[in-house]
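BUG: 3D viewer hangs when loading the predicted structure for this chain

Environment: internal workstation, default settings.
Expected: structure renders.
Actual: progress bar stalls at 90%.

Input used:
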Amino acid sequence: MTTYPFLDVSVETPMLRLRAATDELLEELAHVVRAGKASADPAPYDDPMSFYEPDPDLRVAKWLQAIWRGRGMLNAQSWRLFFVVVVDDEPIGMQDIIGVNFTTFGTVATFSWVSADHRRRGIGREMRSGALQLAFDGLAATEASSEAFVDNHGSNAISRDLGYESNGVEWATRGGEPALMNRWRLTRDTWAAQRRDNIRLRGVEPCRTLLQRL
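Structure tokens produced before the viewer hung:
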């Protein structure tokens, strides 16, 4: 698709691809959401992409609605780009990159999930690495943030491994209940010092150009 550049962007690493979340790819991934394999323990925060809905069909419907809603709210200051994670030609999860006051501060955040069948294989770290390459190298971000509940050891470990610095704590809810979250911060200079040369970006320039005009 060339008429909407946000659906042409992709990121390739030696382990996986982040492909823009077209409806066709979402349809291939829907069975993972329907089967409840997108949920995690400990649970993530109450993001619009939350998977707490117990009814499988309604869970899929709400998941798709959140993505479609996010597509329609893109502007230069605040945006969310959705990617399907593909490993060996199989869609197994999602990685989002979120612009936060982007024209003012150049900051991004990330949100992701992986099917329960593919966890603890280093995929989460590789997904984040690909997202950071797109954010800093492709979209000229100046800083990336991440948040994870204090008992989400996997996400916190990924942030440490990728060079994020601790940036305090805050309260958030999951399943409607309050819990404490760690905040993490990664500057462009820190990322650049460990920039990988084996991650390729495709279709970024038209996306960046249109995003700046919206």
